[in-house]
Specification:
The N terminus is likely disordered. With 553 residues, the chain is of the alpha/beta class. 31% of the residues lie in helices and 20% in strands. The chain starts with a helix and ends with a helix. α3 packs parallel to α7.
Length: 553
């Protein structure tokens, strides 16, 4: 993507409700782009283009004011880094954690569960799906882009990791399927918090503290120190601006990817939609990728892979993750683009939110359309389709109306022309699309609810074919949301970072969303729900197991 492309973009500010974690407080997300309209101008902030060289620049670093030593320096205190630190302690190593926030947590607090195969939970539930089947299905799904040895090591450790986590105080509620996925998603206990991931990291961080992990919070990792082609440590900037040097022969990068670095994301991803919205902590600036590149690392194929997740109402801070308004936005109603055309079967979100997100990504703009009777149903009965753990079928979405009606990107009108004119869509084209959709809905009446034949255009299931023929009508301007970036630094099956010549950079490891090579163009929720959360913890553990061997050698 060229610098010229970046010149014309502006970015929406947003936030999410993953829940507070200790002193971290409110969690803020960012990084959405839009061609501003009257409805969105107030929520936008102009940004200027950044040259490719500037994106990757580290800048000058002052002389260290303090030097400490460790066996392992871990950059990031989220799921990857905390798992790595605890695993390092288990192995008798001395870890030091460098975290830019003021507590453990990172973007992992936005997770609700992680994938696992052949776990004791699976066996107790009678699940027969095996590691070998999971590896085969995911490799096929990703067109064999990932390394099979990496998958073998990753998936093959998931059962032991669930027990390891339980041994370190973590609790799980259930093993479930997401949509049509295999039953492999291990949902966390949320304890006394509304956020399962928030509670997970609260207790995980407490475990790290109990074990004596040395951590430096409010500290920014700046540069990997290399000596004679090997890792020798890290330079980091503390809150007071002083430089801390960590002398360590091993560095693990687990900074959470680059979801909040707009320039970096646009330079490597394929998104077309002019409105995108990051859902997650506002701390994922690509630091790990930038430091790795400076140290000579190569990037994996599909470095621009993003975990797209579909509609998020623009400008509605209260309509993001875990809210009733968010659940309304992803319902399988009628989704249209800037030409007022349908572009996918809208119930795809229920089965594979990542695939639905890619469909939204490939439109210039996107909108969600429904009618008042739909809203009445949702706020009295509950959603048509389930939305993770917070939008259960049968649970009324009582707060959605108030949130959405207060948002300037939500339009309600007695006629379709009224809502079309509000956003500049061709009203005649919208009417034609809805006439066709209503024709298909009529054909679906009386069919088995799973029947897909009536929707001749896209194959949506009959139970989700609800006509749009009676006002008031609702039209939501939506961004394409994304949970995290999934592409990144090239690693081998031992989680070791690889350089441009295919050689290991001794002592350098990368895990979680900083590492790439696990996906093709999409997240694999259809086959391994929670694989990114599982990868975070398992890559942290695997990196330390292999680092211990490296240090012994």
């Amino acid at each position: 993507m060229s610098t010229k492309d970046l010149d014309r973009r502006s970015f929406l500010k947003g936030s999410l409700a993953f829940g507070a974690l200790g002193a971290a407080g409110a969690l803020v997300g960012c990084a959405a782009k839009t061609e501003t309209t009257a409805a969105t101008t107030a929520a936008t902030a102009e940004t200027t283009a950044t040259s490719p060289d500037a994106i990757w620049a580290i800048g000058e670093i002052a002389e260290p004011a303090k030097t400490i030593t460790a066996d392992v320096c871990i950059v990031g205190g989220g799921g990857t880094g905390t798992a790595a630190a605890i695993q390092a302690i288990d192995l008798g190593l001395k870890p030091v954690v460098i975290e830019r926030l003021n507590a453990y947590g990172g973007s992992f607090i936005g997770t609700e569960g992680m994938t696992g195969f052949e776990t004791h939970w699976a066996k107790e539930a009678g699940v027969t799906y095996t590691v070998r089947q999971a590896v085969a299905n995911c490799l096929k799904y990703h067109h064999w882009i990932p390394q099979h040895k990496l998958y073998d090591n990753f998936f093959g450790q998931t059962a032991e990791t669930i027990e390891w986590l339980e041994g370190h105080g973590q609790k799980f509620d259930a093993i479930v399927a997401l949509g049509t996925s295999p039953q492999s998603w291990h949902v966390y206990d949320k304890g006394d918090m509304s956020s399962p991931g928030g509670y997970f990291m609260k207790t995980f961080g407490a475990e790290a503290n109990k074990l004596g992990v040395e951590a430096y919070f409010n500290t920014y990792a700046k540069k990997i120190v290399m000596e004679e082609g090997k890792v020798a440590g890290l330079l980091a900037e503390q809150k007071d601006g002083s430089i801390l040097k960590i002398e360590a022969p091993v560095v693990l990068l687990g900074c959470g990817g680059y979801a909040n670095n707009s320039d970096l994301l646009y330079s490597v991803s394929e998104t077309k939609n002019v409105n995108i919205q990051a859902l997650g902590m506002n701390c994922r600036n690509g630091d790990g990728l930038i430091m790795a590149k400076d140290a000579g690392a190569d990037f994996a194929e599909s470095v621009g892979t993003v975990m797209w997740c579909g509609p998020v109402t623009i400008g509605a801070i209260e309509a993001t993750w875990t809210t009733h308004a968010y659940s309304v936005g992803v319902q399988p109603t009628l989704w249209i683009n800037e030409k007022a055309e349908r572009f996918c079967r809208e119930d795809l979100w229920v089965d594979d939110f990542a695939a639905a997100g890619i469909c939204v990504r490939n439109q210039d703009k996107s909108y969600v359309v429904f009618q008042e009777s739909d809203m009445n149903y949702w706020e009295t009965v509950g959603p048509y389709g389930p939305v993770f753990s917070f939008g259960a079928i049968g649970t009324p979405l009582t707060e959605a109306r108030e949130t959405l009606t207060a948002c300037p990107s939500v339009h309600i009108g007695d006629t379709l022309k009224e809502v079309a004119d509000a956003v500049g869509i061709d009203a005649t084209a919208l009417q034609a699309t809805i006439d066709r959709y209503n024709e298909l809905c009529a054909a679906a009446a009386g069919l088995d609810e799973e029947d897909t034949t009536a929707d001749e255009d896209f194959g949506k299931r009959a139970k989700y074919m609800h006509a749009v023929n009676e006002g008031p009508f609702w039209l939501l301007e939506v961004a394409d949301g994304y949970y995290t970036t999934c592409g990144g630094i090239k690693v081998n099956e031992n989680i070791e970072v690889i350089d441009s010549k295919g050689q290991v950079i001794p002592g350098l490891y990368a895990g979680g969303s900083d590492a790439g090579g696990l996906y093709g163009d999409s997240y694999d929720v259809a086959w391994a729900p929670g694989s990114q959360a599982a990868w975070a913890v398992n890559s942290g553990r695997l990196s330390m197991k292999n680092a211990a061997k490296y240090l012994q050698a």
